[in-house]
Write a structure and sequence with these properties.
There is one protein chain. The protein is an alpha/beta fold and 212 residues long. It folds into 2 domains: 128 residues, Rossmann fold (3-Layer(aba) Sandwich), CATH 3.40.50; 69 residues, Winged helix-like DNA-binding domain superfamily/Winged helix DNA-binding domain (Arc Repressor Mutant, subunit A, Orthogonal Bundle), CATH 1.10.10. 55% of the residues lie in helices and 12% in strands. It is built from 11 helices and 5 strands, in the order βαβαβαβαβααααααα.
């Protein structure tokens, strides 16, 4: 594993990741700041590793992973994200990633994660699962967390966009879906999360750190 593609919409983060990878003799073949470009470059450059942020424009990180795997891509994918690990680490692995690191710990853990991926192992620090979960002490918070755990990857992504204040049409354009489809997802979210309206959804998403 001696080549990589970095995908993150923050230039400083891309630069920091590049420095660490190059220190470990991994050539950075390219960089991308959105999901569509990431998929295009992955096909063109054929890197051995993709270091991928989840919260990127055009196509979110989970969708990038799913599409690459459905197309038969065999590169290793290491996710670096500021999203709540309790709800995203296992989703990323199920979608086809080999590792997940919190952005708060990325610069400290990246080298170790690369080492483990090179050895054919998955990098999911056990401590990451409890970092944000111990605060969910009330029965209501536990119930909400269980509800979030039952959502599909796409439902989580739509919930994140709604919580950021995006309208249905804007979300549809961003995810390359129809307005009607987004409306359907919104209805499902209200039902699955026992929410009465959009405000409830937004507050729930923020309580569980699903948006930055």
């Amino acid at each position: 594993m001696n080549s990589a593609l970095i995908v993150d919409d923050h230039p400083l983060m891309r630069m920091a990741v590049r420095i660490i990878l190059e220190r470990h003799n991994i050539e950075v073949l390219g960089e991308a700041e959105d999901g569509v470009t990431a998929i295009t470059l992955a096909r063109k450059l054929n890197p051995a590793l993709m270091v991928l942020d989840i919260g990127i424009p055009k196509l979110d990180g989970l969708e990038v992973i799913s599409r690459l795997r459905s197309q038969g891509a065999t590169l290793n994918i290491l996710v670096i994200s500021s999203q709540q690990q309790e709800h995203f680490a296992s989703r990323c692995v199920m979608a086809g990633a080999q590792g997940f690191i919190s952005k708060k710990e990325a610069l400290n853990e990246l080298a170790e994660a690369v080492k483990m991926l090179r050895a054919g192992r998955v990098y999911l620090p056990m401590g990451s699962y409890s970092s944000g979960f111990t605060a969910l002490s009330s029965e209501k918070m536990r119930g909400e967390s269980q509800g979030l755990g039952k959502l599909s990857n796409r439902e989580i992504v739509v919930l994140q966009y709604l919580a950021r204040g995006w309208g249905n049409k804007a979300i549809a354009d961003e995810l390359l879906l129809s307005n009607k489809t987004i409306s359907t997802y919104k209805t499902r979210l209200l039902t699955k999360l026992n929410a009465h309206n959009l405000v409830d959804l937004i507050e729930l998403a923020k309580r569980h750190l699903l948006v930055e």
